[in-house]
Amino acid sequence: MLGKHAGPRVDGPRGSRGGAARIPPDDRVVLVGPGPVRERLAGEIRVTDLRARRTRSIESRPAGRLTEQQLRAQLRLLAGAAAGRRGPEADGTG
Predict the structure, then answer these.
(1) 68 belongs to a structural domain
(2) pTM of this prediction?
(3) Mean pLDDT across the stretch 40-48?
(4) How far apart are CA 16 and CA 37, in angstroms?
């Protein structure tokens, strides 16, 4: 999920229950992962938005299991930021 921030992260079947309610209503939503949980959560968000007469971008992309580092790189790419690593030299302190 992507918007003003990169959260919340909802993992697995148990994480999807009520997941739509935890996503800020004005955020763009990008769901990434394997299996039917991703599509079920996308459907839940669409229904919630429909009931609230709200429209927003909801994308669903299949992907294998991601490490935290891989997920962060995906989020940076979706946000339009460079996927490279940021070290101390990037902020001028090193």
Answers:
(1) yes
(2) 0.59
(3) 90
(4) 7
